[in-house]
What does this fold into?
Amino acid sequence: MTPDTRDDTGDGTLATDPLPLDGITVVSVEQAISAPFATRQLADLGARVIKVERPDGGDFARGYDTAAHGLASHFVWANRGKESIALDLKDPRGREVLHGLLDGADVFVQNLAQGAAARLGLDSAALCGRYPRLVAVDVSGYGPEGPYAHKRAYDMLVQCEAGLVSVTGTPERPVKAGIPAADIAAAMYAFSGVLAALLRRGVTGRGGRVEVSMLDALAEWMGHPLHHTMHGGQQPVRTGLAHAVIAPYDAYPTADGDRVLLSVQNDREWRRLAEQVLEQPELGEDPGYATNAARTANREKTDAVVAEALARLGADEAIGRLEAAGIACARLNSVAQLAAHPQLAARDRWREVGSPAGPLRALLPPIGLPGGAAPHMGAVPALGEHTESLLHALGMTGEQITALRRDGVVR
It folds into this structure.
């Protein structure tokens, strides 16, 4: 074995370690969020991701909005670092091209409507039979069988079916999560499922099937309210920003119009809050406030005392006092404030990625691999941007490609 002569960084990693998925090729017939967000994670870690789109408009998420310099914000977020090929998979010639790509692929991902992949011969069972080393991922709304298998499964619908909406919001009104939680949950389980299947392939030499449903993924994320209800006999109540069983735990207005959220986790913290922030040390021992059970039972009075104290302070002063007292706290930031967050700036978390509309700001992926190659943060592709180069790589001539374009099989 040739010794490794690369420079050691001193922290157990090597300065020129490659990205962990370098050399892995992913082909994905994907749309919207769940599958695209999963494959973007793979691309960030070095995989080559070939995104297969419809010639007539491509991934429909491209048309959701025009907020990102004329591009759709969902699409920009979930599709950087990929190559786009526009193929009509209903045409046998399009499927032949796809199989040419799969001949050299390690992973295939699809989230077509239930049954559509099987009709095209692209379900995981069929593909794993044809390509034994392939990891084939089916992402669905409700799974491949059961009474909901063919039900439409958009994020908000699955949030409702999974009970997330029933525990989110105020006592008067349930609300959906402000992010596509069901899509993201499914994406992250598909991502981790691929990694697990690739590890297994390293041992057995065989790929295999991975199945992820949005309902299964979000039901897992509902673990706390689910177990609380099943075993405790009562569903947690909706409390807005407050906590169902802890007080004070809420966001309170400050003198300058901001809101500061604080959380008192135990009675020692309550006594410090009473003394150092509320400036009413007697409340630390008052039977109406001294224990969490008492504060929760008297939530309105507890919140009123805290709100009165914070209303006299600006947000910066309130945060300073709370932190000095050792009380967990946070600003209730807007999305614009997140984009300007000092912690993200201090840790140099922002980069620029290319796109058909020019450079766009993007966050580094959350998985850090210190000492190795930087994450792959490639450009957001235009529809069919890589069709010609990919077809040439499969050995097609210019005349053949022109014929496919003429017939609408590729774009």
